[in-house]
Design a protein that fits this description.
globular, alpha+beta
Length: about 190
């Protein structure tokens, strides 16, 4: 199995350079960083917050940082300084290791997975994937799971357009859904 980094260097760069008629190799879009976010929702128990932080650090291989509220909002029952989520930004080797696990192990293990929807791309070609259950990661043992939470993985690249971003991720090996499947799925 070839890694995403090897595939990018050997196959993606020449293919994208030819497809988009780019003169310089440095113009070819590439992945800059990966951001993994978890919202804690209504959880206020310190033990559960520590467990979410521990699991996120275990999955990403890097310590997560907490996201706190900047202002109090009564309808959301938040106070200034409350933890509302955790975030990890991956770059370099850890980023490629995480992406390899995500593409080759985690996405195929997801329930009812038929490919990443093409609507998951924004206008700049960045990809956002929602994972409903954190237990699809191979680092976690089923018996140790006390509760299930979701996470969001955003893969940020330097593509100039949505089409360049989709071509980048498709040539690297991300399992994208076909267009007709994306249009037929319920919204």
């Amino acid at each position: 199995m070839t890694t995403i980094q090897e595939t990018y260097k050997k196959k993606t760069i020449p293919a994208l350079q030819e497809a988009f008629r780019l003169k310089n190799v440095m113009q070819v879009p590439k992945i800059k960083f990966v951001s993994v976010n978890v919202g804690v929702g209504r959880i206020k128990d310190d033990a559960q917050l520590k467990e979410i932080q521990r699991i996120l650090s275990l999955v990403t291989g890097q310590r997560s940082s907490s996201r706190r509220t900047k202002r109090a909002i009564a309808s959301f029952k938040t106070r200034i300084g409350m933890v509302v989520g955790y975030s990890v930004t991956l770059r370099g080797k850890r980023m490629y290791d995480f992406l390899n696990r995500l593409v080759h192990v985690v996405l195929p293990r997801m329930r009812d997975f038929h490919g990443i929807s093409r609507r998951s791309f924004d206008g700049r070609g960045n990809l956002t994937i929602g994972i409903k259950e954190h237990i699809v990661f191979p680092e976690l043992i089923g018996e140790d799971v006390k509760f299930i939470f979701g996470m969001e993985v955003t893969v940020v690249g330097n593509a100039k357009s949505r089409e360049q971003g989709m071509a980048l991720f498709e040539s690297i090996g991300f399992p994208l859904a076909k267009e007709e499947e994306t249009n037929n799925r319920k919204r």
